Amino acid sequence: MTTQYACLRIISVLCLLWCSASLVCAQDWKPIDPAHVALKAPTIDKEADAEGIFWEIKVQDETGSYGPPQRALYNYARIKIFTERGVEKHGKVDLTYYDFGYGASISSIAARTIKPDGTIVEMKKDAVFDREVVKMSGIKVKAKNFALPAVTPGSIIEYRWKESRPAEVYMRLALQREYPIQQVMYYVKPGTDIIVGDKAAGMKSMTFHGQTTPFARQPNGFHLTTASNVPAFKEEARMPPEDQIKTWMLLYYSSSDKKNPMEYWKMVGKQNYDYLKGMMKVNDDVRKAAATIIGDAATDDDKLQRLLTFVRTKIRNAYADEDKVTDEERKKLKERPSPADTLKASIGNNTDIDMLFASLATAAGFEARIISLPDRSDIFFDPNFPDDYFLRTRDVAIKSGDKWKIIDPSSKYVPFGMLRWEQEGVQGLLADPKEPGFISVNISPAQRSLTKRTAKLKMTEDGSLTGTVRVEFNGHPAAAEKEMLDDKSASEREEYVSLRWWKSRLAGVEVTDIQLENVTDPFKPLAYSCKVSVPGYAERTGKRLFVQPAFFQKNIAAMFSTGQREHAIYFNYPWLEEDSINIELPEGWALDNPEAPANVPLGNAGDYKVRLAMTKDAKTLIYERTFKFEGLLFQKDVYPALKQRLLKKSVVFRICA
Predict the structure, then answer these.
(1) Domain 262-442 listed as CATH 3.10.620.30
(2) Which stretch of DSSP H or E encloses residue 286?
(3) Which of the following CATH numbers is that of domain 447-656: 3.30.450.40, 2.60.120.1130, 3.30.300.130, 3.30.470.20?
(4) Considering the entire predicted model, what is its pTM?
(5) 20 to 30 A Cα–Cα from 633, which one of 4, 69, 153, 365?
């Protein structure tokens, strides 16, 4: 998988920090409107605990600390607090940002509180802290955290901050926050002399899931767009990607004048082919290597799997943790190596590895193309938007029979026949010199992402459990866990397993003798085994023990807990869980009127099955659970039914002496 990032090529310095006196002045506190101090109730959402009076952002490019341009966003937010809950929710602030090593940061924070009587309390400069925030999606982001002073219902709070980003051709501008806002104002100073490709590019914008006013030129050279009465954004578990449902604007520079999407994509598909065909060049070294690698493989799948195994095991990825490539080795790599260069060096970046695989496949007699794919963890791609910004991932398409087989050579842990889940179930643009076009990428079935768990346990009379466990991950879960583990030491891996799967949900559990398998193997399932001891797992009352046999689901929160739903429900990929638990009962104890819970059919989305049995000697309880889920996107009107069917099945049995 190759990810493309578009950056500015700038002929002249765009906008220098010291030449914008108006921007400096804009960072003074604005006068307080007495009507806002007297405001008793929200105007947008009557149930809101707080309401933004305005959120003003000035955007311009500046010289960075080390020379390259940085994009500066000067933010100013003013919020009216109405309730105690509003104080609790908004009196403490997290200014989040994504830092991928490209110079993103937040600085110049100032904040103050205007009390209901008009008194102003400034926040001290040392009140700002750095921390990490985990969003509901599981993504970790950095944040500047601070608490505003003396906040009470009726107060107005306001704060300013500067966000710095790399100066790129594309920029996402947020329009929604966690509270409703009366007016959002973006002042943008366009870059000048910007070249995209080989043509001069102009500033364009696209607003998603909302409305903004057309940009209007201001006397100071900025262009203003606004959004009014913007509702609050509510984050929910298992919702679609934020930018699929949130109101936001894409600001970008483009040299394309094409308005017809079909014509635009045809042009891009041809350009991609012309640009990439030289990077897939076959020479004698590549031909010899392909013949040796394929050997006696007979079928297309066998041949392709051998080629894939070669590039994943014999070519080190220059930027993959597990391949441990040094800075000195990276410096020796050519900027745009040929496949033969990558083959000789045995090192390459994602693009180099993808191009080598395509070249080897071509040498083996296959027709190879590059396919550009969207990322559905980010947004659901719409080809009616004629710009390739959302097609930033490139994989390799191989013609096998009359179908195209899509392969991701550089994503080391993605099984053969699968892609990263973010690129499955999408439309991809196939590069071609004559007839480029979109083709569908299948979603891997639930069976490919199997998590298989077994436990052999023994219960004592006080309700404690001891025994051995084995867990095996396949498909998407395996790829995700391998990425988490591959750069950790042996002791760190053991600690990760202990915390993630056991100590986070079972109080007092002891986990020993942890053995991991295939952590860095490109294709084999990831597995671990261990010994566990759980004191007081079952609750004892007199001569009875109450035990939950679903050992691997103990203390896991229900998938859905809220009564109502605001957004659609979204799952990343289909999956299958198979659990088998054997619990040996204490000597002289027996199961009291055992009855397995009813199976839960989920229609086209899958099913939930439970089997309960006892061994012939009546000493061991056998509990088997199968949960298959194949749905991806559900509209919010089916939430009550879906929630009911996916409620955690916490069945408890009585064991009597």
Answers:
(1) yes
(2) helix 284-294
(3) 2.60.120.1130
(4) 0.90
(5) 4
